[in-house]
Amino acid sequence: MNVLDLALAGHNVFFCGSGGTEKTFTVKRLVNILGSKRKVVITYEVSQLSRKTFETINYIAQGVRGDEKPFGGIQVIALGDFKQLPPVSNDLDQGKYCFESPLWKIMFCHNIQLKVVYRQEQKDFIDVLDQIAVGEMSESALHFIYDLSLNNLNENDFGLNFIPHISCTIFDANFQG
Predict the structure, then answer these.
(1) What's the pTM value of the predicted model, to 2 decimals?
(2) CA separation for the pair 169, 171 (Å, rounded)
(3) Phi, psi of 137 (to 5 degrees)
(4) What are the mean pLDDT values of the chain's consecutive 10-residue runs (177 residues total)?
């Protein structure tokens, strides 16, 4: 089953995918279709949602709705990318990922990964991004990145009238030539 079929059947669903897999498109379809049929919560700030916050929201929803079901029986469709920034830890929260909660497995029996990249047709580039996301780079990926060095690029490679630069700090970004 796909995300839409599961959501229409009333299931809670978590889905994810790398850039270009049409997560936003899928959310817009879900909002258009489900919004008129039933009350459902669709959220996409779940990537940095901590375990403690996830469990606290559940506790509050159960109390407000007077229902012991996960999230007080509210249908939840969530999406995110856990390969991005982790939840922030502080004195009150250890910053563990929400999927580390035992509640996650109860709440989201359906976890779907969107795999087809629609916005990018260069398979080599997609493979490199996937390797970067998991922190494991092959020799061919390293060579691919090296070949993308500024010495080997021109503006037409991106269909833009400039070459994009990635900087690690605001200071570096402000002083790119």
Answers:
(1) 0.71
(2) 5
(3) -105, 130
(4) 87 84 83 77 85 95 95 91 83 91 94 76 74 82 76 60 70 70
